[in-house]
Amino acid sequence: MLGRRSRLAAAAVLATGAAVCLALTGSAAASPQQLPSAADWTNEKVNRIIDVGGTITRSTTQFTLRKNESAIASAQGDVAPYYISLSPEEDVHLAYTKVTLTFEGQKAEPVILELERASRPNSTHHVYAVQLPKAVLVGSGERRPVVTFDAMFSHMSSPLPKTIKQSEQMQLLWQGEVGIRSPYATNEGKVRVRSSHPRILSYSPNGPDEATKSGSTLTFGPYSNVEPIALDGKADASTLVAGRVHYQYDQPVISAVEFNRHVEISHWGNNLATEDRIWVRNDGAALKGFFSRVEHQKATYQQKITSHILQILTMHLPPGAKDVYYIDKVGNVSTSHLNASPDAPQLVSAFPVALMQGKTSRLALQPRYPLLGGWNYTFSVGFNMALGEGGWGRRIPDQGLSKVAGDLQGAGSGKHRYVVGVMFITPLTDVAIDNVQTRIVLPEGAVVTQVDIPFEVDSLRHERFTSYLDTIGRPAVVIEKTRVSEQHGQLVYIHYTLSSSAHYRKPLSIAALVFALFGVISTLRRFDGKISK
C-alpha cells in the first residue's frame, strides 16, 4: 500500500471562482515493532453495531475511554497512541475506515483522526493505531473521550443455500466475532447485529444469557470485565466470541468485479470527459434449474419481482453531468433514466457527502437482461462535465493566490499551473468494488507536478497515452486500488503545468497536417500521369 494517506484541508476552495489552496496533512506509518500496552487505557464501555447486508457489511464501534497513568508516560509529544484490533477475517475484507473523537455529552463536531497500521510482521492479530491529541491526556473534566471506529467490509456474507429456484427467496449467512476484541481491558460492552429483514432463521451463540432477539436486531452480551486480548500469544477463547447469523435478504447481492475509469482533460474543449467500463456480478444464490422468461414477465406484471434478481442499478453522477450515454457490447441500451442536477461548484469537494444528501445526478440503469445469481454483465457509462468557469478545474495564478486567474486556456507566455479535481469512482450504493483502475489523461505537453489522493491506494504510476493527432503523446496518471466502497467516491487532485507552446501544439499540428495534405493534393493535380506518344 502506498503511504499517501492524507486529508485535504482546503479542498472546498477549488469550488470557488477565485484561487486554489490545497493543504495536505500527511501522516507517517506507525512503527510495526511497537505493541500496545494494556495498562495505558481502560475501555469503560464498548458498544458495537454491525449492519449485515449483501456484499457490504458496516460496523460502528464506540470506545469510551479512561486514561491510565502509563498512557501519559507513553505519549510522544502532543499525541498518545490508542490501538484498535481487528480479526484476521475482518482485516482481509476491510474496505473503508473512519475514526472520530468526541467527548461524552459534547455536541460539537467530531474530530477526524488518522488510522495507521501498527501490526508486527507475520502477526496473527491486526492492530491499527490512532493518535489521540494531548487534550485527552491532560483531562477534559468529567467528560470521557469517545473514539468511534466506522468500518466497511466487503464479501463477509455468503448465500445459504448456495442455489435456489427463480421464485424462491434468498438467505445469507454472516460469520464473524460478536465479542469484545481490544488490547485493553473492558469494563462493560455489547455487540448488536442488525439485519434489513426481521426474518432471522438462526443465530449463534443463542443461549438466553448470550444473545437476545428483538425484531431484526440481535444483541450479544452484555459483557463485563473483559480481559484484553494477548497480542504476543494465543487469544483467549472466552474473549473472542465467534458469531453466526443466518438471515433473509430481499435485495440483489451485487459486486463490481472490475471498475475501469478513463478521464480526459481538454482545455480547448473546456471539458472533462469520463467513461466507466464496469463488470458487475450477482453474488447471490445461483439459479437452480433454468430461467423462465414467462415466469419473470408474469412476476413483473403482477409486481412480484423476486428480490434477488437485479433489475435496476443506480449510479450517482457528479452534479452538472451532461451528454450521458449507456452502452454495452451489443450497442446502445435505452432502458435507463437520468435525474439530472444542475452545476453545483460548491459540491466539488463534498463527495461522498453529496451522495448521502442526494445532491448528485441519479442515473438508474436497467441491464439488457435480468441478472440472476452468478450472472455477469459488462457495460460502459460516459458523461461530460465543464472544466473551467464553475467546473472542476482551475488555473492557479502565478503571482500569489489572491489574484483571480483567467480561464483554463491561459494567456501570455511561459508555463501556467493548473489543478483539476477528478472523482476516483462513481459511487455505487451497497456495491462492493473489487478492483478499480482510474486513468487520468492530461493535455499533450502537460507536466504533472503533484497528485493528491485522500486515501491509500495500491499503486500510482505515470505513463504516456497516445490518441489521434498526437505528436509526443499525452501524460497520464494511473491509480489502482482493490477493495473499494462507495465512500471512496472522493476527489483526486491533479496538479500540472502547461506552457503556451505546448498548449498551441495541437492546433499547429492540425494546421501543418492540413497544409501538408493541401500541398500533396496540389502536387498530384499538377502531375500528368498520361503516357505521351
TrEMBL record:
It is a single-pass type I membrane protein. Residues 1-23 form the signal peptide. The chain crosses the membrane at residues 508-527. One of its GO terms (biological process) is protein N-linked glycosylation via asparagine. Keywords: Endoplasmic reticulum, Membrane, Signal, Transmembrane, Transmembrane helix. Pathway: Protein modification; protein glycosylation. Residues 199-218 are annotated as: Disordered. It is found in: Endoplasmic reticulum membrane. GO terms for cellular component: oligosaccharyltransferase complex. Subunit of the oligosaccharyl transferase (OST) complex that catalyzes the initial transfer of a defined glycan (Glc(3)Man(9)GlcNAc(2) in eukaryotes) from the lipid carrier dolichol-pyrophosphate to an asparagine residue within an Asn-X-Ser/Thr consensus motif in nascent polypeptide chains, the first step in protein N-glycosylation. N-glycosylation occurs cotranslationally and the complex associates with the Sec61 complex at the channel-forming translocon complex that mediates protein translocation across the endoplasmic reticulum (ER). All subunits are required for a maximal enzyme activity. PANTHER family: DOLICHYL-DIPHOSPHOOLIGOSACCHARIDE--PROTEIN GLYCOSYLTRANSFERASE SUBUNIT 1 (PTHR21049:SF0), RIBOPHORIN I (PTHR21049). Belongs to the OST1 family. Component of the oligosaccharyltransferase (OST) complex. This is Dolichyl-diphosphooligosaccharide--protein glycosyltransferase subunit 1. It comes from Tilletia walkeri.
